Amino acid sequence: MLKFKDSKKEFSIVYQSEDMSENTVYDYLLTEREADLLMDNGDVFVLDSNTDIDEWEEMTGIYEEDEFKLNSEDLGLSNYFTFE
């Protein structure tokens, strides 16, 4: 199961592709307006530190530790999540 390393740390990750391999990490929460403007540009979606952990798991498809080790760096998760 994914778990936040620091539940108080705010961040946003903007994913620019369906497979989530293209992403930009921000060490702060984007405003709702910023996120909406980004998402108006095609296949872009935003997940952040306020997003429920179940949604993170569903969107990333990471349900096992091996998947986390393989994909966490590419998906921008390694600084914010652990797998337990």
Structure overview:
There is one protein chain. This protein has about 80 residues and is of the alpha+beta class. It has one domain (about 1-84). Helices cover about 25% and strands about 20% of the residues. The chain has 3 helices and 5 strands. It has helices at about 30-40, 55-60, 65-70, and strands at about 1-5, 10-15, 25, 45-50, 80-84. Strands 3-2-4 form a 3-stranded antiparallel sheet, with helices on one face. A hairpin with a 7-residue loop joins β2 and β3 (about 25). The chain is globular. The model has no long low-confidence stretch (mean pLDDT about 95).
Q: Radius of gyration from the CA trace?
A: 12 Å
Proportion of beta-strand residues: 15-25%
Strand order of the largest sheet: 3-2-4
Head-to-tail CA distance between termini = 5 Å
Which percent bin holds the helix content? 25-40%
- Outline the biggest β-sheet: 3 strands, antiparallel
Q: Work out the number of β strands.
A: 5
- What count of domains describes the coordinates? 1
Structural class: alpha+beta
Tally of contiguous helical segments: 3
Estimate the mean pLDDT confidence: 93
From N to C, what is the helix and strand string?
EEEHEHHE
Multimeric state of these chains?
Answer: single chain
Poorly predicted parts: none
Q: Categorize the overall geometry.
A: globular
